[in-house]
Amino acid sequence: MTQLEFSKMSASGNDFVIVDNRDRKVYDMFPDTLGFVQRICRFHHSVGADGVILLESSADHDFRWRFFNADGSEAEMCGNGGRCAARFAFMNGIAGEKMSFETVAGVIKAEVHGRKVKLQLTRPVDMKLDYTIALDDRELFLSSVNTGVPHAVLLVGDVDLVPVDALGRAIRYHEVFGAKGTNVDFVEVLDKENARVRTYERGVEGETFACGTGAVASGVILAEKALVRSPVNIHTKGGEILKIYINEEVYLEGDARFVYKGHLHEEALL
Fold this sequence. Notes:
Number of strands: 18
CATH superfamily of the largest domain: Diaminopimelate Epimerase, Chain A, domain 1
CATH class of the largest domain: Alpha Beta
Helix content: 10-25%
Radius of gyration: 18 Å
Oligomer: single chain
């Protein structure tokens, strides 16, 4: 079997397998794309990652991407993955320092400056502030917005005290969010320029070290409620601080780190 060349990249503690798939070799080698993604993302048994990014050809932009969560589901957008894809494209001559690429959520623009990548995201939609949902024997007070993917945002006093996996899972699958569910962000406001965020990610089905679209969703909701001003620094569980610019357009800025390049052996998919 011909071995598949891939790169491993990381942003804010989220790690991704990235493949230049402009020749569509992944589909030729692995017709069961969902199974391929699930197997390669397994920690301890394979490469291990939060998701897989395939860069493909685009007629109108520098490239088109497909983004898959670790469970094999395809997501519309991922902010941390978008930063990694942009830096990968620049490092491999697919795009220049300034680029645009197609996603299911729409066209994303990016600028690469060394390890730092700034993404201009699609305009947030479906914002809904301050409503309640019933959960077991209590009601939760939250807001929601779609920043490429849907997010529910809950303000809390101390994010360290939140049972993110258990409570996040219950909200993620709540009937009010429909069959596809939602990502869930727990947000603690520190001051007008800073907030802490912990995120339960749909598709990963657990808490991650950071979520780019979740950082943006949190910043957008906080700004709409006049609790912060732009730019706002979002402090993630992984330790990185993501900067969110909220004006006429919305930008996400943070590092994207190259980890290694390798060739996938067939035994990695057993």
